[in-house]
Amino acid sequence: MTYEEIMQKLEELGSDQTKRIFMNHGAKEPFFGVKVGDLKKLVKYVKKDHELPLKLYDSGNHDAMYLAGLSVNPKLISKETLEDWAEKANWYMLAEYTVAGVAAESDYARELAKKWMDSDEEMMAVCGWSTYSNYLSITPDEELDLNEIRVLLNRAKNSVHNERNRVRYVMNGFVISVGSYVPALHEEAMGVAESIGKVHVDVGNTACKVPLAKTYINKIVDKDRVGVKRKTCIC
């Protein structure tokens, strides 16, 4: 399918109901309101051409941008393109999922995550923390820098409640990821989770809730899945 055909299909798949839901979550125009499940059905038509998802992301249309993240090959995407994507991620769904998932599976995961974390721009910082969290979920333990992760854990412990809104959410998620995917730091993550307690995030006009890190990690323990890695973090 061509770019024009994909955009036409997205418009056909969009619905006012889904669009209202996305808008309640903070989505920015333009977009048609396509369910993620329907976007996934189009991946097979997009991923064959590396330039097509890049063009879709550049459209500025949320549905097309999300589809681009599902379809692009993270091993072929350049660092410059990832940085451009992060700059164009104008709300949390693109920042936390699209950009972070692709960046985490790229060759620049740690480099970009650490850079983005320090950004003054909220969504850029969100990209950073979410990228590192996703990176932990797919990377073998022997390839992880435990000291670096420990420093970031302490940073989350000391600053999460004073951070910007969605940064608080992804910092809390980072603690959960460490406790769930890094056995060597599980106990330290549990200590941080205990210390930070409940993290308050304005989730707008939605029923979304911020997971309590300690409770979430304990569920992973109960399932005996601490340290079990994911095959992919792109979703």
SSE arrangement, N to C: HHHHHHHHHHHHHH
Beta-strand percentage? under 5%
Principal-axes shape call: globular
Question: What is the mean predicted local confidence, pLDDT?
Answer: 97
Query: Based on helices, strands and strand pairing, what is the structural class?
Result: mainly alpha
Indicate the low-confidence ranges by residue numbers: none
The tally of helices reads 14
Q: Could you tell me the number of beta strands?
A: 0
Quick structural overview:
This is DNA alkylation repair protein. The chain is built from 14 helices and no strands.
How do the helices and strands line up, and which of them pair or pack?
Elements: H1 3-13, H2 16-25, H3 36-40, H4 43-46, H5 51-58, H6 62-71, H7 79-88, H8 92-104, H9 109-117, H10 122-138, H11 146-159, H12 165-181, H13 186-196, H14 213-222
Helix pairs in contact: 5-6, 6-8, 8-10, 9-10, 10-12, 11-13, 12-13, 12-14
If you had to describe this structure to a student in words, what would you say it looks like?
The structure is a single chain. The protein has a domain at about 1-70. The chain is about 65% helix and about 0% strand. The model has no long low-confidence stretch (mean pLDDT about 95). About 40% of the residues are buried. Helix 11 (about 145-160) packs parallel to helix 13 and helix 12 (about 165-180) runs antiparallel to helix 13 (about 185-195). The chain has 14 helices and no strands. The radius of gyration is 18 Å and the shape is globular. With about 240 residues, it is mainly α. The longest helix is centred in the middle third of the chain and has 17 residues, at about 120-140. This is DNA alkylation repair protein. It comes from Rossellomorea aquimaris. Pfam families: DNA_alkylation. InterPro entries: ARM-type_fold, DNA_alkylation.
